[in-house]
Amino acid sequence: MDITDEQWRENAFSIPANLRAVPRSEDDDGLRHAMLIVWAALAKASATIKHLYSLVPESMILEFAATLDMQAPDYGLSFDGTETYEEIVMRLGGCLRAMEREYTEQDLGSRPTDPARWLVEHAGHCAYLIPMGRLAWKEIKTPPQDMRNFDQRGLLRVRFVPAVVDGATVQIVKADRMARKSWTFGAVLFPDPTFDCDETPTRFFVRAVTIPHGETIISDACKAAHTELCLTTVFPELMIDPQSRRLIETQLVEKPWLAEGEMPDAPGIVVAGSWHEVEHGQRYNIATIYDGHGVQIARHKKRMAYKDAEGRVEDIRHGTELVVVVLEEALFGFGICLDFCNRCYHTPYGWLDVDFAIVPSCGNEVTMDGHIRTAKDLDNERKTRSFVVQQAYPPLGQAAGFVLNPDGNSSRWAAEELLTGAPWSVFRGETLHDR
């Protein structure tokens, strides 16, 4: 429920008492619940209050954190009721930093690896506390000059992701693989496809798609995803029917290009585009997500149906989940086309606090312009990088589609500059950690 800033201030004075009321335990439950209390107070505050965090340098956050006693019932946090908004924000930020360091420095490798056990619930708040691998810790910048906003700096080593975001249940999936320091992304597009649609005056869905040399493009892309050591490989929306999806899965499982006895270094995540599929009697637009060995790890159902220029609506039910995939080096969120490019509503993807938003898409320059605008919002708010692979529709003579490179360089983002003619494109980055 919305509250005024003055009510927020009064509620903040009661946080030390709320911390004292949380039972301590040997399995960190007390600390996790305490972190949730402090995090929620800042994360769900008004923009005005959250802005105050960006006026506090990290050196002040660390200085106050060093004064706190993590063994005390209230963790050393106290107020006398006269503190200004600025002082409250600084103390809460310092307390959260101290708690985060206590939590990560006491980690001896025995904490739960099942995402279901990362869920923390307290006093109406419910979120996943995700323990990130060290490669995914956000960069520590020069403390006196570090004045990033709360959404970029509030937590550096762990992430809180609400259990429900924008009405969708958040599904956390952990993909086990060896972490790597390289950041390579592969994009697959298909020149000159032909769509076969089932249409009425009000509805439509894609019944089939014919792709010249489709099997070769898919097989070559799966091989390239391995040889290029891709962290993520993405096929476009509504281009991967069940037969093509089985081919992708088979290629990832069997890796027929390998010599006998050769040990593969598999890609991290492969998004097998999407397709209009019937599930439990209802049609959805579903993106299937595999690990690098062809194991299905998640299915994302499109949440927003497309309406074409003639007013025909995509004949699908909307998805009710948002998928977050956890790798050692990064968090990934997923959307399908309009989930991400719709500019009528503020994007919910910021609340997922992912490192990368991965989006298979299908559309024209206007569609890609919407993706670019959302990507800029996420880059500005969270330093989340967006990777959009968009098949051109209607087909273009000069290009197969558009690819938005997750390089964070928004000055180069213009739809006409992102046109791509090749079936396979690869994008490399040195490191993620300028978040």
Describe the SSE topology.
Elements: H1 5-13, H2 15-20, H3 29-43, H4 47-53, H5 58-65, H6 85-105, E1 119-122, E2 125-131, H7 150-153, E3 158-162, E4 164-165, E5 168-174, E6 183-188, E7 194-199, E8 203-210, H8 214-227, E9 232-234, H9 242-254, E10 269-271, E11 275-279, E12 282-291, E13 296-301, E14 313-314, E15 321-327, E16 330-334, H10 338-341, E17 356-363, H11 365-382, E18 385-392, E19 401-404, E20 419-420, E21 424-429
Parallel strand pairs: 5-15, 6-9, 8-14, 9-10, 16-17, 17-18
Antiparallel strand pairs: 1-2, 2-3, 4-5, 6-21, 7-8, 10-12, 11-12, 12-13, 15-16, 18-19, 19-20
Main beta-sheet strand count, sense and barrel state:
8 strands, mixed
Structural class computed from helices and strand pairing: alpha/beta
Query: DSSP strand (E) fraction?
Result: 25-35%
Task: Give the neighbour order of strands across the main sheet.
Answer: 4-5-15-16-17-18-19-20
Low-pLDDT segments, ≥5 res:
none
Shape: globular
How large, in whole angstroms, is the Cα Rg? 23 Å
Number of helices: 11
User: Which range best describes the helical content: under 10%, 10-25%, 25-40%, 40-55%, 55-70% or over 70%?
Assistant: 25-40%
Q: What do the pLDDT scores average to? A: 93
Distance between the termini: 30 Å
- Number of DSSP E strands: 21
Describe the structure.
This protein is of the alpha/beta class. 27% of the residues lie in helices and 26% in strands. Strands 4-5-15-16-17-18-19-20 form an 8-stranded mixed β-sheet, covered by helices on one side. A hairpin with a 2-residue loop joins strand 1 and strand 2 (125-131). Helix 4 crosses helix 6 (85-105), helix 5 packs across helix 6 (85-105) and helix 8 packs parallel to helix 9. The longest helix has 21 residues, at 85-105. The chain is globular and about 70 Å long.
